[in-house]
Amino acid sequence: MSQKDKMAAIEPVRLGPNSKFKFECHKGVKCFTKCCSGIRITLTPYDIIRLKKRLQLSSEEFLAIYTEPHLLEKTNLPVVTLKMVDDEKEACPFLREDGCILYEDRPTTCRYYPLGVATLSHKEGADDEGFYFFVNEPHCLGFEEDKDWTVTEWRKDQGVDLHDEINKKWTDLVVRKRSFPPNIKLTDKAKELFFMVSYNIDKFREFVFESTFLERFQVDEETQAKIKEDDVALLNFGIDWLKDILFQQTSPEEQAATVSPKK
Ligand code: SF4
Ligand code: SF4
Fold it and tell me: For residue 95, how far is its CA from the centre of ligand 1 (angstroms)?
């Protein structure tokens, strides 16, 4: 059984914001960096915005070099995970002997660790209030350290709040899709648009400003100026637009047909 399979086999204990645990992680622990291998890290839109900026890549380049696409079983929505190095260790590409080379910009999943987040892991039950759980990897010795936390304190300490706040609209959209009846299927075009807005933000900017988008959709000048420069503003704008594409009365085909790129 692989590490990933083993993790999947563990039934999660539901934790809430006030749940308590003892934990500490520092360079002195014997297991230092062991958690950065053989792990599935689902990337959020804001993770990608930070990582591509840190690595000075376009979102397209970042996706091509560092990620793998997947389709979520229940929602049929596309997600991307960090591509681990293809060898026996399956280490994260950003891991070096002395730790993470982009620690300040590490993804949301790495910040939460050793906690997992139901919405990000797309677990059953994530539809309602959402919950946390221990990732529970046997090699993690941080639980033997004597420092007390609540889930809320841990989130604050790890800087997760900002990530969750920026990703909120996107997370709501993914969770909302989960509650749709299984017979409502997304077209390939709708999935493509979801992927572009969620993960390929530079491509979405090109789509907005270099296609007939602005002729088809009313976007005031102030918003245009903002989304031209600001990735987070563009992401929020894109998610609002996606909500119409994916969930409103108009069918995805009709909507998608109205925003064809310029030749
Ligand atoms: S991004 Fe950094 S913290 Fe996250 S798994 Fe990779 S090396 Fe570890
Ligand atoms: S395995 Fe646990 S204690 Fe060890 S470095 Fe990773 S998070 Fe810290």
Answer: 6
